[in-house]
Specification:
CATH topology of the largest domain: Rossmann fold
Radius of gyration: 19 Å
Number of helices: 9
Shape: globular
Strand content: 15-25%
Helix content: 25-40%
CATH class of the largest domain: Alpha Beta
Structural class: alpha/beta
Strand order of the largest sheet: 3-4-2-1-5-6-7
């Protein structure tokens, strides 16, 4: 099985008519994702990529029965697009936009409290269930259907870990780019809960980095529930300078808070298996599965 998406996922693209929306929507259609329309205010009644365009998310949902939205809207308007989808009752929203202002994301976070929408992102690579559904910008050449769930804060390392897990003969059930921004939707703990509820996911890889406290919160959850399947973590940024921003809004360690070593210690204490280097993730998970078999 998968988490978040499946063969019945019907996607509309907010911002489809822009360059990014066009380019990635076309790639997703080629992969087999069921994109059923796009949203661009003022262009209702037109077609793009041979799909209908709507003025609003609500109109798109009413006409197409869409149950997922992806956001390719520029940073200045991305929060408004997310809130529109949340208020329309969209079950899943995947926000790919980078550099959404933190103040705007506070409004999005408040909107999420009023409904049942699951938000992935922003600054997310998306969600990929190999041979089932792709929402976002992940590469698919090395992805293979399998039994390992992957959740990641790092875009570049996601592709590397997917390749390793595939080369190890394990494949992926679902890969989720939760996003690296300081304020975002679905977190590591919630994502692991979804993987644990999926009977076909036999192991989970966590790709973490400096900044924030998500890895520590995940460690508390793992210690409390003692998962039946192995959890392997790769935490990067061990040699990152303190109080220097690294790449994006979430990646900054302040003093002893949010640094890589403290995250690793917390996860190890909870029973999470640490991959000592990015090139060892696939082998570490394969060994962990053999030990627990």
């Amino acid at each position: 099985m998968t988490i978040l998406v499946d063969h019945d996922t019907r996607v509309i693209c907010q911002g489809m008519t822009g360059w990014a929306g066009t380019h990635y929507s076309a790639a997703m259609l080629e992969y087999g994702t069921r994109i059923v329309g796009g949203v661009r205010p003022g262009k209702a009644g037109t077609r793009h990529l041979n799909l209908p365009i709507f003025d609003t998310v609500a109109a798109g949902m009413a006409e197409t029965d869409a149950n997922a939205s992806m956001v390719f809207v520029p940073p200045s308007n991305a929060a408004a697009a997310m809130i529109e989808a949340i208020e329309a009752g969209m079950p899943l929203v995947v926000a790919l936009t980078e550099r959404v202002p933190v103040r705007d994301m506070i409004r999005v976070r408040d909107a999420l409290k009023q409904g049942a929408t699951i938000l992935v992102g922003p600054n997310s690579q998306g969600v990929l269930a190999p041979d089932v559904c792709k929402i976002g910008v992940m590469t698919t050449g090395r992805a293979r259907r399998g039994t390992i769930g992957i959740m990641s804060r790092s875009a570049s390392l996601t592709s590397e870990v997917i390749a390793q897990v595939s080369d190890a003969g394990l494949g992926q059930s679902t890969t989720v780019g939760i996003g690296g921004d300081a304020i975002h939707g679905l977190g590591m703990r919630e994502c692991l809960e979804l993987f644990l509820a999926d009977q076909d996911t036999r192991g989970v890889v966590v790709i973490g980095e400096i900044g924030g406290s998500e890895e520590e919160e995940l460690a508390d959850f793992v210690a409390a529930v003692k998962p039946r399947i192995p959890v392997v973590a790769l935490i990067v940024g061990r040699y990152a300078p303190i109080e220097h921003r690294m790449g994006h809004a979430g990646a900054i360690a302040q003093g002893l808070a949010g640094d890589a070593e403290s995250k690793i210690r917390a996860l190890q204490a909870a029973g999470v298996i640490i991959a000592e280097s990015p090139h060892l993730v696939g082998a570490t998970m394969r060994e962990a599965l053999f030990v627990t078999a």
